[in-house]
Amino acid sequence: MNVAYPDLLGTNAPKENAADLRTKGWEASVTWKDSKGKNFSYDVTIALADATATITKFTNPTGAINNTFRVGQKLGEIWGFETVGIFQTADAVSSAANQSRLGNNWRAGDIQ
After folding, report:
1. CB burial class (10 A; 0-12, 13-18, 19+) of residue 21?
2. Whole-number Å distance between alpha carbons of 28 and 76
3. Do 25 and 12 form a contact (C-beta atoms < 8 A)?
4. Sign of the four-CA dihedral 98, 104, 107, 109
5. What whole-number distance in Å separates Cα of residue 17 and Cα of residue 100?
6. Whole-structure pTM over 0.85, yes or no?
7. Which of 16, 19, 25, 31 fits 58 for a cystine, CB–CB 3.0-4.6 Å?
8. String of b and e for 65-84 (b: at least 16 CB within 10 Å)?
């Protein structure tokens, strides 16, 4: 992450490794070795692995979720808004929660 130093230093600060991670996962592999005659041998390995890394410590005083990390975030996660469904009628639009921060002019057929 970028770090701010006082202007008195006269240069930009280098990026800093400012997060603590907890990584959990597993790995498995199977290898087969064989030979055919005296001059030919081969081996085949199949490997499978899975791991997740979660940020356990990160200085983010504002709790911002854009362009930065946060405690509890899984690296590589993809997230977004959850929807309730699709507006079926104009009455459903008028009785729904305020969505003006996401756009305006909501009508039947729009995502709720």
Report:
1. middle
2. 22
3. no
4. negative
5. 38
6. no
7. 19
8. eeeebeeebeeeeeeeeeee
